[in-house]
């Protein structure tokens, strides 16, 4: 079964996927052409990771978070990792060298080593870290 996916930012259709093979790590080769019958090539290079994919219509990342894709202009579907859930965990050694933080962040604070989920939260957190550390 093939499902059409959309850019989460501009809601434009960007390709067709097979839900059975569309798993993490997401690469451009998993996203097929919108019109394969007309011999129109896929929009993304096959080896490109999800972090580097750009929507050709709005030039933003079509997937805001890893492991999910917009399957309807109003619905988001989540796709699990091929391996196990441990593959998505990130372990970071804190600057004090003793404690270990185990989280599922997208961003890491370079000042204290804490995992942060969004870029906006990271910017606010780093600003607070700089004020606290002087």
Provide the low-confidence segments as ranges.
82-94, 98-103
Topology, number of strands: 8
Rough outline: elongated
Largest sheet, strands/sense/barrel: 2 strands, antiparallel
Rg computed from alpha carbons, rounded to a whole number of angstroms: 18 Å
Explain the overall architecture:
The chain is an alpha+beta fold and 134 residues long. The chain has two domains: 1-84, no CATH class; 89-133, no CATH class. Helix content is 11%, strand content 22%. It has one helix at residues 119-133; strands at 3-6, 13-17, 68-72, 75-78, 90-93, 100-103, 107-108, 115-116. The strands form four sheets. A two-stranded antiparallel ribbon has the order 1-2. A hairpin with a 6-residue loop joins strand 5 (90-93) and strand 6 (100-103). It is elongated. Mean pLDDT is 76; it is low at 82-94 and 98-103.
Overview features:
single chain, 134 residues, elongated, 22% strand, 2 domains, 1 helix, alpha+beta, two-stranded antiparallel sheet
Give a summary of the structure in a few sentences.
This protein is an alpha+beta fold and 134 residues long. The chain has 2 domains: 1-84, no CATH class; 89-133, no CATH class. Helix content is 11%, strand content 22%.
Question: Helices, strands, pairings?
Answer:
Layout: E1 3-6, E2 13-17, E3 68-72, E4 75-78, E5 90-93, E6 100-103, E7 107-108, E8 115-116, H1 119-133
């Amino acid at each position: 079964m093939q499902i059409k996916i959309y850019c989460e930012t501009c809601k434009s259709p960007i390709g067709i996927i097979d839900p059975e093979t569309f798993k993490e790590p997401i690469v451009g080769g998993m996203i097929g052409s919108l019109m394969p019958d007309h011999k129109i090539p896929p929009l993304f290079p096959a080896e490109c990771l999800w972090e580097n994919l750009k929507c050709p219509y709005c030039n933003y990342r079509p997937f805001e978070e890893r492991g999910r894709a917009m399957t309807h202009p109003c619905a988001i579907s989540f796709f699990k990792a091929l391996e196990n859930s441990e593959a998505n965990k990130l372990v970071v050694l804190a600057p004090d060298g003793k404690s270990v933080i185990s989280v599922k962040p997208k961003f890491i604070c370079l000042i204290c080593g804490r995992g942060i989920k969004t870029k906006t939260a990271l910017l606010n957190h780093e600003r607070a870290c700089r004020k606290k550390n002087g």
